[in-house]
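**User:**
Everyone, produce one record:

**Assistant:**
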Amino acid sequence: MVNGDGAHEHTGEAELKQHGNGEADAEEESNEQEVIVIQDTGFTVKIQAPGTEPFDLQVSPQEMVQEIHQVLMDREDTCHRTCFSLQLDGNVLDNFAELKSIEGLQEGSLLKVVEEPYTVREARIHVRHIRDLLKSLDPSDAYNGVDCNSLSFLSIFTDGDLGDSGKRKKKGNDLEQIDCTPPEHILPGSKERPLVPLQPQNKDWKPMQCLKVLTMSGWNPPPGNRKMHGDLMYLYIVTVEERHVSVTASTRGFYLNQSTTYSFNPKPANPSFLSHSLVELLSQISPAFKKNFTALQKKRVQRHPFERIATPFQVYSWTAPQVDHAMDCVRAEDAYTSRLGYEEHIPGQTRDWNEELQTTRELPRKNLPERLLRERAIFKVHSDFAAAATRGAMAVIDGNVMAINPGEETRMQMFIWNNIFFSLGFDVRDHYRELGGDAAAHAAPTNDLNGVRAYGAVDVEGLYTLGTVVVDYRGYRVTAQSIIPGILEREQEQSVIYGSIDFGKTVVSHSKYLELLEKTSRPLKVQRHNVLNEKNETVELCSSVECKGIIGNDGRHYILDLLRTFPPDLNFLPVDGEELPPESQRQGFPRQHRHRLACLRQELIEAFVEHRYLLFMKMAALQLMQQKANKDSNKTETPAITATSETSTESTSPLEAQAKELAETLVAEDGSDPKSREVVLNACKAVGSISNTSFDIRFNPDIFSPGVRFPDNSVDEVQKQKQLLKDAAAFLVSCQIPSLIKDCLDHSALPMDGATLTEALHQRGINVRYLGTILEFVEKTPAKAQLEHIYRIGVSELITRCAKHIFKTYLQGVELSALSAAVSHFLNCFLSSFPDAVAHLPPDELVSRRKSRKRRNRVPGGGDNTAWASLTPSELWKNIASEAQSYYHYNIQCESVDQVVEKYSFQKTTLLREISIKTGIQILIKEYNFDSRHKPAFTEEDILNIFPVVKHVNPKASDAFHFFQSGQAKVQQGFLKEGCELINEALNLFNNVYGAMHVEICACLRLLARLNYIMGDHPEALSNQQKAALMSERVLGIEHPNTIQEYMHLALYCFANGQLSTALKLLYRARYLMLLVCGEDHPEMALLDSNIGLVLHGVMEYDLSLRFLENALNINTKYHGPRSLKVALSHHLVARVYESKAEFRSALQHEKEGYTIYKNQMGEAHEKTKESSDYLKYLTQQAVALQRTMNEIYKNGSNASIMPLKFTAPSMASVLEQLNIINGIIFIPLSQKDLENLKAEVHRRQQLQELGKSEEPTEESQLQLEDKIPID
């Protein structure tokens, strides 16, 4: 049933293994009961706001009162109120109380909205909220990457909401109205890749001006005597009618006063009008405000909520239009009160991040409601912390934060801002001198973050990690961490009671830490081991020596410096006197790396252990069978296990399957039978298990760490561990890389750009430093032509990463005032064909003659350094080639961008997108002329911004995830209805933890939509898929490969719903985005073009349809091989269009090709072959009839009385049927008998696959549900 998720299945299984399978099942049972409890009762309350009719609101018992506040602040008629309380029978409700805890609150209760007196804080919140309402349709926050706004363009292509309005606009029968012509630049074969259509113009964004100016008045703060009259602050406002007014915000509300710009007169103006809301006041004094504000709010609430809800983490756009910088007081004031260096001087305003992060972890988690509450709290604090850390890191690099050691040189400075500790990624105090200096200091924070992620996921009670965020900004790497209470007052030596502060020269241990870490050692595969300290005493550890244990003043046990949580990668760590297995040596390993901190990924460790477990089972079983066979002789030979078993073991013979069963019973026994004990012992030894009685593989993370010494009695142990590490390194090269290539060949992995390629590598545990090796592997693959897309994306990723490395050091030498000039110069050298890119130095009038030494020392990148201006294109490309050689060990023989483009058939636009996303550059959206030899492509005006690139942990919604997985499993077994219920449940739980916007919710909605569609509920499918597409745009980006997929699914459901023109617009948009992201030559393009071609065929645009379908045929032939069933189907689709055009000869030619493929692949008897043969007969008859008619005409001249031939357009139903087939959807008539058959079929297939016999399966009968959630 499912194709293409081998890789993901492992990750899912691995997660379950952590909990132990038994528990997981038991947990699921109890979960299902609990969910029923949670969901049974939503109820309706009535809400009465001043001056409005009461209205009904649906609420759920777990909501907080605060959530009703939020709803009211968003509703069109109450959005202008911020300072109010909700009262039930005269009692004020506590904002943070859950509704179920409120006495007397039940179905039909009346809640009154009561205006409360303002405070300075409330008045500020009110003004800020009004400003947000005024700006609610303005996209500038999304372009500037603030407040978790991000772009979405879906509504432009769907003409607003697809729901009910879609019905009214249904143009099912009037095909004539549909304009089907695609824009020139997306036609097959077009070479243009324009950038401007990436952000189409949105009519709604034309600002409706409500006010000219709304700003803080210069008369703030109010003098003492006015404070005693209740004045809180003064606002200065200019209305659209050019009326200048001064407004007092008082405890009772807002009113006009008599002040002017030059004279202060706080008395109320005449006539006086006091209003509790600024909106009411402004509507009184400005008719234009009243009219436009109402219109604006109408528009605002008509937008899909997903277009305006904040995302959990900031998404940045790499392109933006030129936006006028409007005066926006609230923004300006915001910048100075809450944003920059003032924040830490306002007492009581900063959050104690460490306390918040740790207390949320301590929340109870015994049952589902508790776990949901805990996970929601963890997620919320975490996304707030990530936002604050990012802001702080930027402030640090921009020089707006005072260092805590201002006397030291800039590289060595450390900072504290907003209770977060910031350090720069340089090797200060030669800490990493042995390990690779600055390169090691740059890699350590990401390794540490991976460690934090791993320990966080194991989630052991009583063991705490620091909140950690790694930010790359303007060429610097900044690590932001929450602060352990008391650590700043103590010297490090006193506080570390476990681990080592000098890479293992001195080591201490602590029983409580050993006990806590022991609990993590099984899921993280860490071995307890002994090392020697400086006095040659044995010290026991359960982590790497760098991992330090510190007890904070709050009494919590913290661990930090987790950079060696996972074992070292010996392929990139040459050690004198150590030999790697032949598989690694054949690929040219070990290779020298920049630093000695290269470690294996957690996904690799898990895949390796899984692989060893299968091996262990097989070995034990084969021995058992031998024992059975040799009952007479007592000698059991242990089958020798050699390194060759490290290569992929995929085919299992029936004999082995039988053996496996034996072994499983053996492992389940308690080992009382001496014979079976011996078998287990032999198998354990052979696979490197650390225990002799059960399978248990763990790694000692200190092996090969310089400076760590092991006691003499553990020599054997250490030797075993070394071998295990070598085997793991060999496993990566000989098993994981080939399996990645195999998945790419059979299209179960379909990366489209650098990010999705990296994700595919990471899922299989392959680090990006293996990119060169992978490319070499592709070059040697016999089917290289079918991997061309992977090769192109791989080389492009390698080149842009090299450019990023160079750009990083390049930017460090640039002072702030020259930033845009330097960035545009770099992009010119990188992408422009202009041979001698000359940098524009800042104009002379700004270069100050007095350069004080002081100023230069303040910012890490200070100094009046203009070395960057001397970079030339040929020098940059030389550097890129040498970086590719030294870092990736890959040879690019190109001296200029044009050679590279020529050699690897790249698109410059794609390279521009990749480098911009990786480095955080934002450029002006316009058409760049890269190929001009007369002027450079970029000027400094084209560089709009530079954003941070942020890495952080993504806390998971574990219960929701389990539901999602069980739902998927049910669907795959053919229980669609149960699957659908589980997935709906997962969706509720995801929403409960993450809020409304999240990548995983997106995957959930996509799968739900697919199930709705299969079960025949088209409108529901449309609504869920629309949400998925919007969400993908907002949380992943408007041109992320996932967004392209969502657009394609949405187009299919639109077509099924009779919205043909919308379906076409969506498909055209998807094609434009795919061209921009990866170009035309990609297997996924064939599917997209088949979709477009079919829809065009349906609306009788035959010539256009053929262009797309023939392109799809070519791509399919290239990537699936000429004998593939996909190609047969492509031939059939082309034949149908030729038939509609009455060109029967061409139709026959294509259908014959298809028939031949079916006959060879499936045999004469298969229904596909029969269908094709019937169609051939039909085409032949039509051709004969046509010929007859033509002959008539020739014979009798044009006045021959012949019946005109009927050429009918294909029926929508037949087009839809073909669309479903190519998109891998089968409809399941849900009778019990059919379901039984289906399950039997699935079971049969699984068995076939286990026997390694499954040929290329029939595509038509596959239900593709390839939506596994990517695991971090």
Observations:
- Residues 82 and 125 are 8 Å apart (CA to CA).
